[in-house]
């Protein structure tokens, strides 16, 4: 079984487990509502909202992951992946901060030359991630997805 197959299998198992959990949680919400009374009905409605919110989060996360994988595949095919093999690493395996910051500065300079190219946004998002800024990495990756979609349309 390849690494990719293992990851997909884990995701499928987690989605199935969450699905079962959401069904159980939803049935408890209906149980509360059937008991009657304002408190029980309020709790039941609240409990019913949780599975709906959970489903929305799972779907949004899976869609984003698939979009990011699509971009990663295209970047790989175009041989534009960031080369981080030779960068010094901490014992944990993460890239050392100074090296990640230097990589980020180089990638940001590329991005500033062509900010409307999804490839540069993707590479910048990866550089943000290596530098430890997960929030900006997600935001920039969303921009890369939007730019790639506009290019493909």
| Strand percent estimate | under 5%
Report the oligomer.
single chain
Q: What is the makeup of the main sheet?
A: none
Catalogue the unreliable spans.
none
Distance between the termini: 35 Å
Number of helical segments with 4 or more residues: 5
Coarse shape: elongated
Radius of gyration, rounded? 21 Å
Order of secondary-structure elements: HHHHH
State the secondary-structure class.
mainly alpha
Helix content: over 70%
User: What's the average pLDDT?
Assistant: 91
Number of beta-strand segments: 0
Walkthrough of the structure:
It is a single chain. The protein is mainly alpha-helical. The chain is 80% helix and 0% strand.
